[in-house]
Amino acid sequence: LQFTEEKLGQAEKTELDAHFENLLARADCTKNWTEKILRQTEVLLQPNPSARVEEFLYEKLDRKVPSRVTNGELLAQYMTEAANDFGPGTPYGKTLIKVGETQRRLGAAEREFIHSASINFLTPLRNFLEGDWKTISKERRILQNRRLDLDACKARLKKAKAAEAKAAVTP
């Protein structure tokens, strides 16, 4: 009732401290940017949406995500197979072996980067959203409910004083 009356402009609302309001606004901003950065980083690390969904499901089921071959490693495998078909002694075969080995190292570095970024960058962001932010939201709801209770009590007190004053005037 108090909330509805405040929204309709029929009841007074106790304002929170300006510094506290600023902190709440900063917390909201932090949450929004953290979500955006987290999502975009996930897209950067795994551009395939179906693979991201699969990884998400494995994570939610607390199961180990199966290791995937990176595109660089797959290209290296194709180059090595092609080099063996052409013959490792041919100039084209030798080149494919060298480039394939380089691609394999690049693919392994990419895999390590994805793993490292996931652990060292994405995990703290997720921890904030799933831990700290949930606590902030819960405490914010509790504060809002307490404020509404306070304002409702103030309104009842004001009505009681008005009725008491009216009763004192009328003999």
TrEMBL record:
Residues 5-171 form the BAR domain. It comes from the Eukaryota. It is found in: Cytoplasm. SUPFAM superfamilies: BAR/IMD domain-like. Keywords: Coiled coil, Cytoplasm. GO terms for biological process: membrane organization. GO terms for cellular component: cytoplasm; membrane. PANTHER family: DREBRIN-LIKE PROTEIN-RELATED (PTHR14167:SF68), SH3 DOMAIN-CONTAINING (PTHR14167). Belongs to the endophilin family. This is SHLB2 protein. It comes from Grantiella picta.
